[in-house]
Write a structure and sequence with these properties.
about 260 residues; 7 helices; elongated; Rossmann fold
Length: about 260
């Protein structure tokens, strides 16, 4: 996965996603924010919360090394499906391609719902399986299973690991967990080319695709807010009656 994001299409996708994350989290306020996975992207760099962490599993710790190689960027070593936070303690959770590379993505979402405060937000990005990139990936996997060397594993365009989750499937999961989708968008409409020169030749498709076939972008971006339905206390159905006094009331007269 790390090697793919270092390629020309990987850098093209990361640039688009970085702009989307910066725009989405810039005006989100709170105290605690966590990014789970993908050290190649800083999804919290535009956010101003005082406590921001990057959390990675132990096997990906080497991917978070700083450019000079002196110290890791990672602040937490944890599994996304078992977060070391109490319930309702985080204001923002960022999941860049975390769900599709998780063994149990639905459990990861349940864990995110647990640690988010009411009205907290989760920001998710993922590969779109119904895009040109996704279709080429599906073709490569089918040919690989059939043993066709010409279109085998080497023809895979996206990272080999991971099970890509459809946009509408993700929205259903979020709705079942009590999230409300606040914003979603698609991006990266250029064909599945491997070189920078060819990707630049089709740069005009980013504008055309966003206008004419928006749901077929190679990657989707979703912002959802955790809704907690409050209880309304109902009073008794009857009206209280005034208590009547049985004792006589003495009246004072001037005369």
């Amino acid at each position: 996965m790390t090697d793919w994001f270092a390629t020309a299409p990987g850098q093209y996708l990361l640039a688009w996603e970085q702009a989307q994350f910066d725009l989405a989290v810039a005006d989100l306020f709170g105290y605690n924010a966590v990014q789970l996975g993908l050290a190649e992207l800083d999804g919290l760099q535009a956010n101003r919360m005082p406590h921001r962490w990057l959390a990675l599993p132990e096997e990906l710790l080497g991917d978070a090394m700083a450019p000079e190689g002196s110290s890791p960027r990672v602040a937490l070593i944890t599994d996304a499906a078992a977060l070391p936070f109490p319930a309702a303690s985080l204001d923002l959770v960022v999941l860049p391609h975390t769900l599709e590379f998780s063994a149990d993505p639905h459990h990861v979402l349940r864990e995110v719902e647990r640690v988010l405060v009411p009205e907290g937000r989760v920001v998710i990005s993922g590969f779109n399986p119904t895009s040109l990139w996704g279709l080429r990936q599906a073709r490569g996997r089918v040919c690989g299973r059939l043993g066709l060397n010409a279109f085998g594993a080497s023809s895979l365009y996206l990272p080999e690991a991971g099970d890509f989750i459809g946009h509408w499937r993700l929205r259903d999961w979020l709705r079942l967990l009590g999230f409300e989708v606040e914003a979603d968008r698609f991006g990266c409409y250029r064909p599945a080319m491997r070189t920078e020169a060819w990707l630049q030749r089709y740069a005009w498709l980013d504008r055309a695709g966003a206008r004419w076939w928006p749901i077929f972008g190679a990657v989707y971006f979703v912002v959802a807010v955790k809704r907690v339905r409050g209880m309304r206390l109902l009073g008794p159905a009857w009206k209280p009656r005034r208590a009547t006094s049985s004792a006589p009331v003495s009246v004072t007269h001037r005369h």
